[in-house]
DNA sequence: CGCCTTTGACCAGCGC
DNA sequence: GCGCTGGTCAAAGGCG
């Protein structure tokens, strides 16, 4: 299964290209968001753990290490096993999911990542002036979710948390492939390369 | 008409 | 047990 992230929409959000994932500890290390999101089902590799870091708004995601050398210290990633079912054991704490959180600087909350999302909820969260929006992938049988909220400390940043793995390719995968195609198996190398040399 | 957003209600987990 | 909180549901309405 391949899993891509980027800005493959033929009619891209004009602000998206200015969205970056910034490492607070090392502000000079900025990556285009589209440069590195590829998830592989179920595995936790060194790189993914390395940029795991809790944010206070993501209390359910425990902090691991933050490794500024990868430039991902400001993104939260918790990779677990995904269970995609809406009944029975939903909302159990033991029900873990594969989730990745990006903190991006963007004027718009909705960044076009190539997938089609349907909003299903909006909640105000405690200790945050900004509401949290909940989206599901509109793909048939695809239960990937994402949460989008503005950083309570700096509203110029958007926190986007993806949960799950798409069971389909991005509708705009062809377009994206011309920009920056990364196979999941190569993602570790890609992310490592990106951290050392941009583009 | 189909798909979307909005939004209040509902539910489960958690802390006290 | 109770209240708070986060996450989800589903009805209603809007839009193309």
Automatic annotation (TrEMBL):
Domain of life: Eukaryota
Pfam families for the chain: WRKY
InterPro entries reported in the protein's UniProt record: WRKY_dom, WRKY_dom_sf, WRKY_plant
Principal subcellular localisation of the protein: nucleus
Stretches with biased composition (Basic and acidic residues): 84-96
GO CC aspect terms: nucleus
Subcellular location: Nucleus
PROSITE patterns associated with the record: WRKY
Gene Ontology molecular-function annotations: DNA-binding transcription factor activity; sequence-specific DNA binding
This protein's UniProt keywords: DNA-binding, Nucleus, Transcription, Transcription regulation
SMART domains: WRKY
Bias-annotated ranges (Low complexity): 50-69
WRKY domain: residues covered: 106-171
UniProt-annotated stretches for the region Disordered: 46-99
Protein name: WRKY transcription factor 51
Organism per entry: Cajanus cajan
Organism phylogeny: Eukaryota, Viridiplantae, Streptophyta, Embryophyta, Tracheophyta
């Amino acid at each position: 299964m391949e899993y891509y992230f980027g800005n493959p929409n033929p009619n891209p959000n004009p602000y998206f290209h200015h969205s970056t994932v910034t490492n607070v500890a090392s502000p000079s290390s900025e990556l285009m968001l589209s440069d590195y999101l590829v998830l592989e089902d179920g595995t936790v590799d060194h790189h993914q753990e390395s940029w795991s870091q809790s944010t206070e708004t993501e209390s359910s995601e425990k902090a691991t290490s933050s490794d500024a050398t990868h430039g991902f210290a400001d993104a939260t990633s918790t990779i677990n096993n995904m269970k995609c079912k809406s009944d029975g054991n939903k909302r159990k704490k033991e029900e873990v999911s594969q989730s990745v959180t990006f903190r991006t600087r963007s004027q718009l909350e909705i960044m076009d990542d190539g997938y089609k999302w349907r909003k299903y909820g909006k909640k105000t969260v405690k200790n945050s002036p900004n509401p949290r929006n909940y989206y599901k992938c509109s793909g048939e049988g695809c239960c990937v979710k994402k949460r989008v909220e503005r950083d309570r400390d700096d509203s110029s940043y958007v926190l986007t948390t993806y949960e799950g793995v798409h069971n389909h390719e991005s509708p705009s995968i062809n377009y994206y492939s011309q920009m920056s195609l990364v196979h999941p198996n190569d993602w570790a190398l890609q992310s490592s390369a990106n951290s050392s040399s941009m583009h």
